[in-house]
Write a structure and sequence with these properties.
single chain; 694 residues; alpha/beta; eight-stranded mixed sheet; disordered N terminus
């Protein structure tokens, strides 16, 4: 065979492979209810309720896991070795901690702790019909308390630790909670509003010490305050039999983070959460006792609660951390000591886009600061991997890929411990640029998912082998996903080349509705003639030919400008966050004007690095944000990001305002999942927004 003929055959083979139709990840299905375009998971003809035979509740699932993995480590926590206060030149003071190694509770010992806590609740007088609230940061006691409540069939009210006073009072009073399980700092919040809380009888504090003013509340408000350890001790001394729930019992009343108005309590049954946990098991291959999971997102968020339950179900281990101690360079980690990720070396992570954006920016900053050969090598390696992932035959593959991993990406992987093999991203849209960057640098896939509190985080999820970006995958095995027409917005299921419409999710993971809010429940929940329950999300999506969903809009985020153009605020923000100067951004559009504007919380390192290169000295960060040349530099960077994302001219902010102070859940401007609270931001920066239109 001549080289010429061989070349033709190879080219023909490559051409044939390039024309191979994409694998069908989701398939059309006929469903009841409102007419629409519905898709199911290609591997499952009907929604999955439980992956484990005979297991119908979260309590049964946890007990089964503990019996099967009694001696294996389950919950890990790092002991604080020392704390110190670091004062910066600008007057800011930050607490720095030195944390020790992970200390582990086995499955068997965790189950003993859960049973003791459950018995302790009974000993304190908490009745099965009463509700308990967990109001604390993510930690091992949170998980133990949750499972302990389940063993007494107690419905758990989950509350974000960052919730403001008004929302906190509303959540506790509306659900008539009698027992609150909280951390030390959360107990202080409760004490401050004790006169406004109607039904609380007892408080269980997770810390070793109860604040001194707790005794005053004990007397004046009539609360009985106990430590977590004391409740477990009482339970060990006075054991009682479990009163396990059934599938239809309410496991959790999960209060949303209140991005608009007061939070709503979503009622989740054991069957609802179990359906999502069962579906997620099918996504990551070979999950098992060899895996470890870094838990740092709020357990009051359904993404984290479902993740920890499915990690425990497969016999893996959970190491607890926090966003402020995640890496060696995190804000709260003492210099020269290890962050949670390096100490644990997890194999599985969940993340919200804001966290992944920060990891991306941290890598970029480190590469830029080194410069020289290191920067050149990184850029070459990145471009070669990007070329290969984009389908270019001449991209980095095989031995070359191994070489780049050894020379470049091994150091990046080390930031998160070096062993991560899968990242689950949810809670908000992840930009395509960040998804690709993290995928290449960590060498592990990011499974972007889509779900809501009302669907127990279940909806869609990217398959392990799907390297596409900007999509959220096919329906999870627990769900059917349907698009229905939204004529007012111009989205129809008959649109070409892809059907478009409002996303509606149906299946056993769809929750009961909102606690004591039948009006809102009837508005967004519908039962069809076949008994399937559907939730109308308010999000707009389109289905690709392979059955994967892409989120393209949201009803509430669409603003009509003066000349009739529609701007999707979230879509624009997702594109512009790719700018290295952006820490957080909120796009605002006034319907009485022809352009939109933006508030930009500037990236401290990126803007200061630019200022240094410009020779700007002796300016505080707040002063940098006020400078006209700084604003112009950031605005130009946003224009580049907008161009890369192919935004329309009217979608690009005409004016911006730089802000120096971060938006955190404590400021009340973002939720615990780092979603924007638009109304709160508009109120806080009403003058700045008004000035942008003058």
């Amino acid at each position: 065979m001549t080289p010429y003929v061989l070349g033709i055959l190879v080219a023909a083979l490559l051409l044939r492979n390039s024309r191979r139709p994409p694998r069908k990840r989701g398939l059309p299905v006929h469903v009841g209810g409102e007419p629409g375009y519905a898709i199911r998971n290609s591997r499952f003809e009907s929604p999955v309720s439980s992956w484990w035979e005979g297991v119908l509740t979260l309590a049964e699932l946890f007990e089964q896991a503990c019996k099967r993995n009694s001696d294996r480590p389950l919950l890990g926590t790092r002991r604080v070795i020392s704390r110190e206060i670091e004062v910066h030149s600008d007057g800011r003071s930050l607490e720095k901690v030195h944390l020790g190694e992970y200390e582990w509770l086995s499955y068997g010992r965790t189950f003993e702790a859960v049973c003791s806590f459950a018995s302790g609740l009974a000993s304190l007088g908490h009745g099965k019909a009463e509700r308990a609230a967990i109001f604390a940061d993510t930690r091992e006691e949170w998980f133990i308390a949750l499972q302990g409540c389940f063993r007494r069939n107690i419905s758990v009210v989950t509350i974000y630790s960052s919730l403001g006073e008004e929302a906190l009072c509303h959540s506790l009073n509306e659900t008539e909670v009698t027992t609150v399980i909280c951390g030390q700092k959360e107990l202080k919040k409760l004490i401050d509003i004790s006169g406004q809380l109607d039904t609380i009888e007892r408080v269980i504090c997770m810390g070793d010490e109860i604040p001194s003013n707790g005794t005053l509340v004990d007397r004046s408000a009539g609360w009985v305050i106990n430590s977590f350890a004391d409740v477990k001790r009482r339970g060990r001394e006075n054991p009682v039999e479990a009163e396990l729930p059934v599938a239809s019992d309410v496991a959790v009343i999960m209060y949303t983070s209140g991005s608009t108005g007061l939070p709503k309590g979503v009622m989740m049954t054991h069957a609802n959460v179990l359906a999502t946990v069962s579906a997620v098991i099918t996504i990551v291959p070979s999950l098992g006792s060899q895996d470890s999971y870094l838990a740092y997102l709020p357990l009051a968020h359904i993404l984290e609660l479902a993740a920890e339950n499915f990690i425990a179900a497969v016999g893996a281990s959970i190491g607890y951390g926090s966003p402020l101690t995640l890496t060696d360079t995190s804000n709260k980690i003492k210099k020269g000591t290890r962050g949670d990720a390096v100490e644990l070396s997890p194999t599985i992570l969940t993340a919200v886009p804001a966290i992944l954006d920060r990891v991306r920016d941290g890598v970029r900053k480190k590469v830029d600061s080194k410069g020289g050969l290191s920067k050149v090598l990184f850029n070459v390696a990145y471009s070669r991997r990007l070329s290969a992932m984009s389908g270019n035959w001449f991209g980095a593959r095989g031995p070359e890929r191994m070489l780049w991993n050894l020379l470049v990406f091994r150091k990046v992987k080390a930031i998160l411990g070096g062993r991560v093999r899968f990242i689950l991203s949810g809670g908000a849209p992840l930009s395509a640029e960040t998804q690709r960057f993290i995928n290449i640098c960590l060498g592990s896939p990011i499974g972007q998912g889509y779900g809501l509190t009302e669907t127990c985080a279940g909806g869609t999820f990217c398959d392990f082998d799907d390297t596409s970006v900007g999509r959220v995958g096919p329906p999870l095995p627990c769900s059917f996903v349907k698009l229905v027409d939204w004529p007012e917005g111009g989205y129809l299921i008959c649109d070409s080349p892809m059907p478009r419409g409002e996303i509606v999710i149906g299946g056993p993971n769809v929750t009961l509705g909102y606690f004591k809010n039948q009006v809102k429940t009837r508005e967004v929940y519908k039962d069809d003639e076949r008994g399937m329950r559907w939730f109308y999300t308010g999000d707009i999506g389109q289905f690709h030919a392979d059955g994967c969903l892409e989120i393209i809009d949201r009803k509430k985020d669409i603003v009509k400008l003066q000349h009739g153009e529609y701007v999707s605020l979230a879509k624009v923000e997702t594109a512009l966050v790719a700018s290295p100067y952006v820490d957080t951004i909120m796009v605002y559009a006034d319907p009485f004007h022809s352009y939109c504007v933006a508030l930009v919380v500037a990236s401290h390192p990126a803007l200061e690095d630019w200022a240094s290169k410009q020779g700007i000295q002796h300016a505080t960060f707040a002063e940098l944000c006020e400078r006209e040349d700084s604003t112009k530099e950031v605005h130009n960077s946003l224009l580049q990001a907008a161009k890369a994302a192919r935004l329309e001219k009217f979608e690009i902010p005409g004016k911006i305002r730089l802000l120096p102070d971060a938006w955190t859940p404590e400021t009340g401007l973002v939720t615990a999942a780092l979603k924007l609270k638009r109304d709160a931001i508009k109120k806080a920066f009403s003058e700045e927004l008004s000035n942008l239109y003058t």
